[in-house]
Amino acid sequence: SQQGEEDPQALSIQEGENATMNCSYKTSINNLQWYRQNSGRGLVHLILIRSNEREKHSGRLRVTLDTSKKSSSLLITASRAADTASYFCATVLLSGANNLFFGTGTRLTVIP
Amino acid sequence: EAQVTQNPRYLITVTGKKLTVTCSQNMNHEYMSWYRQDPGLGLRQIYYSMNVEVTDKGDVPEGYKVSRKEKRNFPLILESPSPNQTSLYFCASSLGAGLHTGELFFGEGSRLTVL
């Protein structure tokens, strides 16, 4: 399966700390995307990084991509209680653009 | 407001009773897709559509049907629901015909329980 694997499965930090989540995948990709999901709600797109990019920023989010290791990381700086959610990486394969393959997610809890 | 709307949001039904979960988007998106989310399994694609009258199977299509008669609507049909279809379902759409250029916009989800 192409499904990504996030690490760790769960993460608990204090407000103000940085949170880092990792994602690994198996097959060559066109792009990798990160999504956020509040409990039981729809997923919200955070950032897309293409296979020829190494790093991307959006506000307090920093995403890196290492295609040689087939891995990506999401860093949330200066976390807030409102960042509490599940975070998923998802990949679009180089061979096809019909599906986003999602990982099983990292559950982030930010303690006020 | 740009959005993907699913109905119903919650449904409890019994085995074998046909049901339809509707999905509508108001963003003129080409691509639409259905996912199911189960604990420990992440999101898995059921069906997708790259344009009107063009649909194809995803990873877990068994027991489901879809149609795309209009660009904005992409209903998910369970002809004879079974308990293993108890899940949280998401409809999603994207601007282009594929996902190489854009992200998915998700609905709020439909929680289905089949007794």
Notes on the structure:
The complex is a heterodimer of chains A (112) and B (115). With 112 residues, chain A is mostly beta strands. Chain A has no helices and eleven strands. Chain A has strands at 5-7, 10-14, 19-24, 29-37, 43-50, 55-58, 61-66, 71-76, 85-93, 101-102, 106-111. In chain A, strands 2, 4, 5, 9, 10 and 11 form a six-stranded mixed β-sheet that branches. In chain A, strands 1-3-8-7-6 form a five-stranded antiparallel β-sheet, with no helix packed on it. Chain A is globular. The relative contact order of chain A is 0.35. Chain B has 115 residues and is an all-beta fold. Chain B has strands spanning 4-7, 10-13, 19-25, 31-38, 42-51, 54-57, 65-66, 76-78, 87-94, 105-106, 110-114.
| Arithmetic mean pLDDT of chain B | 94
Strand content of chain A: over 45%
- The low-pLDDT segments of chain A are none
Please work out how many helical segments of chain B DSSP would assign.
0
SSE-based structural type of chain B: mainly beta
End-to-end gap of chain A: 38 Å
The largest contact between protein chains, plus residue counts on each side, is: A-B, 24 and 30 residues
Shape assignment of chain B? globular
* Helix and strand run of chain A: EEEEEEEEEEE
| Total strand segments of chain B | 11
Number of strands of chain A: 11
Q: Name the helicity range of chain B.
A: under 10%
